[in-house]
Amino acid sequence: MNMDKKTYARYVEARAPRSPIVKDCVRAFLVGGGICLAAEGVIQLLLGVTEITRDEASAWTSILLVAVAILLTAIGVFDNIAQFAGGGTLLPITGFANAVASPAIDSHSEGLVLGIGAKIFTVAGPVLLYGTAAGTVYGIIYWICTLIWA
Question: What mean pLDDT do residues 23-33 have?
């Protein structure tokens, strides 16, 4: 079958399954919102039962979210939730915990150094690299703008 690029693109588009965008967005919203709602519930519970500040309650809640995301990743449940919810599980802290834990769990049989140590940031590494680089560039632009318009 010999086709040019435009003909092939039309061929693929005609046969590719349509994505249920509205359904996917609703699922992501409900699951992501549910995670945020649960986190706020934990914060309110900590504030009501203990004598800690809101910042401390938020920190403990973040630690709990990371631990739960890693546990769910380890037992294979997080992937099922992510399959259902799509982007809803990509809340920064739970998605990042999964992105770090998953390669570590997958490569633990290769040893601590060549397995876990070498592969733990294979997914999260580019996010850290380009996030830090973008933050630096935006910071420099902001600094220059403050010099100009201050």
Answer: 93
